[in-house]
Automatic annotation (TrEMBL):
Gene3D superfamilies: glutathione-dependent formaldehyde- activating enzyme (gfa)
Name listed for the protein in its UniProt record: DUF636 domain-containing protein
Xref: InterPro entries: CENP-V/GFA, Mss4-like_sf
Keyword Disulfide bond in annotation: no
Entries under PANTHER family matching the protein: DUF636 DOMAIN PROTEIN (AFU_ORTHOLOGUE AFUA_1G03180), GFA DOMAIN-CONTAINING PROTEIN
Keyword Transmembrane helix attributed: no
Family note: Belongs to the Gfa family.
UniProt keyword terms in alphabetical order: Lyase, Metal-binding, Zinc
Signal peptide stretch: none
GO molecular function, one term: carbon-sulfur lyase activity
CENP-V/GFA domain ranges (all copies): 3-117
C-alpha cells in the first residue's frame, strides 16, 4: 500500500509505502516560518520507503538546534513545503502531511508526539494522547 502526496501546483508528486513510523506535530519556529502555519504535521517514514515520482524539489538547508543540517525540500514553482531530511535522523524522511492526498493529510487523526511544545501557539491545545516534548526528543 502506498500513500501519495503532491504540491499545490501539481509539478511535484511523491509517495511512501507502508505506515508512518511516527506521526508528529512540530511547533518550532523553523516550521512556522517555513510553512507560514502555526505548526507542521509530519508522517515520519523510513527513507527507503519514500520517493519523488514527479518533478524535482528544490532544497534549502537550515542548521538545527543540534548544529546539524536540516534539509528542507520544496516545490520550485509554487513553494509548497514538501518534506525534510534531518542529518540527526538519517534513516527517515519527515513528510509534511498537509501535502498528502486522498484524506491522508489527517494522519488518521492519531498523533504520536508533539515537538517544541514550548513554542506552541497559545490558542492550540495538546493533541489527545500525544507525547509532549518541550523541544526535540
Ligand atoms: Zn508546486
Ligand atoms: Zn519544527
Amino acid at each position: 500500500m502506498s500513500t501519495k502526496g503532491s504540491c499545490a501546483c501539481g509539478d511535484i508528486e511523491y509517495q511512501f509505502t507502508g505506515e508512518p513510523k511516527v506521526t508528529a506535530l512540530c511547533h518550532c519556529i523553523d516550521c512556522q516560518k517555513w510553512t507560514g502555519g502555526a505548526f507542521t504535521s509530519n508522517a515520519v517514514v523510513p527513507r527507503e520507503s519514500f520517493s519523488v515520482t514527479k518533478g524535482k524539489p528544490n532544497t534549502w538547508d537550515a542548521v538545527g538546534a543540534s548544529g546539524k543540517i536540516n534539509k528542507h525540500f520544496f516545490c520550485p514553482r509554487c513553494g509548497s513545503s514538501l518534506y525534510t531530511e534531518l542529518e540527526v535522523m538519517p534513516d527517515v524522511t519527515c513528510v509534511k502531511a498537509g501535502g498528502l492526498d486522498g484524506g491522508a493529510a489527517s494522519l488518521g487523526n492519531k498523533i504520536d508526539v508533539e515537538f517544541y511544545t514550548k513554542d506552541r501557539a497559545g490558542y492550540l491545545g495538546a493533541s489527545e494522547g500525544a507525547k509532549q516534548e518541550p523541544q526535540f526528543g
